Amino acid sequence: MRAVDLIARKRDGGRLSDEEIGWLIAAYLRDEVADYQVASWLMAVCWRGLDAGETTALTLALADSGRRLSFGDAGRPVVDKHSTGGVGDKTTLVLAPMLAASGVLVAKMSGRGLGHTGGTIDKLEAIPGVRTEVGAENFVATVKERGIAIAAQSPELAPGDGRLYALRDVTGTVESIPLIASSIMSKKIATGANAVVLDVKVGEGALMKDLDSARQLALTMVELGRGVGLPAVAVLSGMSEPLGNAIGNALEVREAMETLQGNGPEDLVSLCLTLGEEVLVAAGAAPSHEAARERLGATLRDGSALSRLRSLVEAMGGDVRCIDDSARLPRAPHVHDLPAARAGHVSGIDALACGQVAMRLGAGRATKSDRVDPAVGIVLRVKSGEHVAAGQALATVHSRQPVSVDSLRQLSGAFRWSDSPVRPPALVLDVIR
Ligand code: URA
Questions:
Q1: Active site includes 212?
Q2: Diameter of the chain measured on Cα atoms
Q3: What is the full DSSP assignment across 218-279?
Q4: Is the C-beta atom of 180 inside 6 A of ligand 1?
Q5: What digits encode the pLDDT tens for the residues 242-271?
Q6: Which residues fall within 8 angstroms of residue 51, CB to CB, at 6 or more apart?
Q7: Which domains does the chain have, with CATH numbers?
Q8: pLDDT-derived band of residue 118, with 50, 70 and 90 as boundaries?
Q9: pLDDT at position 154, please?
Q10: Distance, CA 345 to ligand 1 centroid (Å)?
Q11: How far apart are the CA of 92 and the centre of ligand 1, in A?
């Protein structure tokens, strides 16, 4: 086989067989096909797409580029969740302990934040002492012992995706539904879960800006899952404004802990319940959505989900005292309220703008090698639909240096206004089973 023939065929709108796709990926990982050839093929895929069979073949080739974890006779279903990334998205920190306390095993490999979106690994590392690079064996053992493990994506799992993603990142080929779907699902397959819930974010602050493309991505992943025997359900959730109130690593850990103590923001709690009930039903661990939701809600009321977070942090070597005393989390030296310049109803809060301000404060990274500052970020003091008086605090900025006028201006510009009452935006836009 020659890479140039496969590139030309895809360029001309033809299809590749399973063997051809498997060969291309394997040969690339053996360095027998050059970066520039795979980059050309990826660009051809962006223009021409992949059909369902090709997408499955690519997904399996990436999943099989490393090892596949197995939980053997764990006796309980193993579940996983994935978010396509958003601003203020600390769902994993809340939902994973809720699921573990509901009786399933949670095995979650997570990523770091890049650009304006955050990553679970950066958030966990805001807890002093936490180690997230644990290796696959340790990860499996922790899931079996404690019912829950969250770790940085292991280089042993789907290494082909890591290599391909790095190439896509610098060749303008990230934005392709079959490439995104195969990238995400290959990692889910390699992690060895029995069911997965996919939180596909939609809106300005998300990878998918509109409902149609989000639905297309969700359908592609759910069908991929069906084809390979991994039950997957996708929830399309709004990301036109940040999720919850906190944006920034330690600030989001604090909000996650408050949520597990029963004092979480309504949107975050509601999304966790929806994602949780879907995956419990998909895994066959609850007889109905109602029963699943009831069980998940109970884990917030009786403290069992919070105990699971404590156990997780302990397993990761973190300071568990932070779980009961958030004052032990890193704190920024400068705290500044942003006052409302006018009275009115908040009709929207631009998630992208909030994410960009938080990133500039140091909560996120512009390039993969940047270090994040765990302490800094933003806490929204109002959400869409609320009426605000002039001078009332819209947000609190936590920064390492005194906050710049530019950042305050951009943050202030993130708030949209109406003179008449407005309804908060819908959070769950669709569920694809
Ligand atoms: N997240 C992934 O894991 N892969 C993509 O291609 C895009 C988002």
A1: no
A2: 68
A3: HHHHHHHHHHHT--EEEEEEE-SS-SSSEESHHHHHHHHHHHHTT---HHHHHHHHHHHHHH
A4: yes
A5: 999 999 999 999 999 999 999 999 999 999
A6: 15
A7: 3-49 (1.20.970.10), 78-324 (3.40.1030.10), 331-418 (3.90.1170.30)
A8: confident
A9: 87
A10: 36
A11: 17
